[in-house]
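Late entry, evening session. Most of the bench is empty. Finally got around to the prediction I had been postponing all week. Sequence below, unchanged from the version circulated by S.P.
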Amino acid sequence: MKVYILEDEIVQQFRLESLIKNYLQQKKYPVEDIVTCDRSRDLLASLEESSRNNIYFLDIAIKGNQNAGLEIAEKIRKLDAIGQISFVTTHNEFASITYEYRVNAHDFIDKILPQEVFDERIIANIDHYIMINRLKPLNEVFSYKTRTGKVIEALYAEIRYFETTGIAHKLLLQMDGETLTMYGNMNEIEKMSNHLVRVHRSFLVNQSFIKKIYKREKIIVLEDDTEIPVSRAGFKRLEQVWLKRYG
């Protein structure tokens, strides 16, 4: 996880970054980095090289653009579907329109709150994120908010594969002894973890469960003997995965 701050006021940058850094150190919470930006494009460029499931504290008005925070939040959601986004702003009137941007904001924190109350709100946001992820390593959990608003959570160690159904955005999630129906986007899910490899237009497989590969028959066999079709592009992806794994 990383903490991202988007704020173009130097004093407010320092206020936020110092508070967050000190609290994370005090609580010994796991964090890769705290990234502070005063321009939307810098945050986005950094995020494109980052892991997913991060925490974001975004101002709404940046460099004279009154909607900058909302616009960058919309772009963040395309890269990080499950990250926690909170707005730190004097523009709380925008709270009611965030639905239009489909950013699923966790909180709106007013900059003009008394210092003690402001700090408590920031800390509560961090604690909430850690609480949600506390039971398992952050890179080992699949957590996805579906198009219907439902949140699907599972350990990657339990996921065998995702399969399309022929109905737009309706997917099957196959786990150990359980099949879940969910609404989502295979391209989004594919980008969420290196555990998953797209072997076919209709199948996204957890590589840990692959037992055998039959290139001539154009299938793979999972540990439970399930056979999955593989496309030509899928074999290329598998070769890249196996090269990384075994050198």
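Two things to note before I forget:
The radius of gyration is 20 Å.
The chain has a mean pLDDT of 84.
Will write this up properly tomorrow.
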